[in-house]
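>> received
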Amino acid sequence: MIKVGIMSFAHMHAYSYANCLKNLDGAELSAVFDDDEARGKRAGEQFGVPHLSDMDAFLNDDLDAVIICSENIFHKKMVLKAAAAKKHILCEKPLATTVEDAEAMIAACKENNVILQTAFPVRFSKGIRKLKKMIDHGELGKILAMRTTNRGQNPGGWFVDKGYSGGGAVLDHTVHMVDIMRWYLGKEIKEVYATIGHYFSDMDIDDAGLLTLEFEDGTIASHDTSWSRFSKYPAWGDATIEVIGTKKTVSVDAFGDQLRLYKQQSDQTMSFVYAGNDIDFGLIEDFVFTVKTGGRPSISGLDGLKAMEAALAAYKSAETGKSVILNHQ
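>> returned
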């Protein structure tokens, strides 16, 4: 039995991951750490596990692995502490808020011989995985270009406080689809150009951006990222990709498998219910299997760093009005 603890319930995905652990054979949620006493206590009671507000005491517990779901700015501290305690780690995206922090996290996990996996659940969408197989089998021919989107609702709270998040919608919603593009191509991004602003709220943080990317093999791509969905919108948002090849063009929406519901007695006449596979469960199942077998993570810390690096380059491009060249030597 793989014993897993969750470090912080600041990120809403922590609740989904906890439910996944509760329903996964061969794993158990054993404890919760949260220095927010009230939040941690609620989570512990909800999932029937002890809550600890002292990080060292939590990490001294009999745990095989931890899932880090804190505010982005605290990822580095928690990863370094967990690695030193010899716990395998699944870290919520973005991996960190600076390249230097991400590099330190990767180095610490390597030094302590523990797994560092980045939480990119979109990789476990059936549609996204099917397109990956088509590309690998040459069905699309040579990939010429890609178009992606990741548009959702403004999460509010610490997400809109740059001191805790490190950035707004561009950092929050770029990393998923950049990861998918890197995974599909097996190539790195060479150049990033971006326009970024805040258009959908009065908050002084970016809520939308449009990125143009060029990969090292010459493939071009665009990414439309935003917190543009209003609270009464019938679906949370999307995560789409269109891959244009010399033989075929294929489009996928990771959240597109939905049922439309119409209700007379409701604030919303129509709503969507997601009917696809549980991508969070796929992520947690994969992480637990990696811990159990001692294998290499399917989504590494380096994958997290590279996706985050593209988002940070977009901010720099928007600030300077120029393209940013990424060095991969």
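>> The mean pLDDT is 95.
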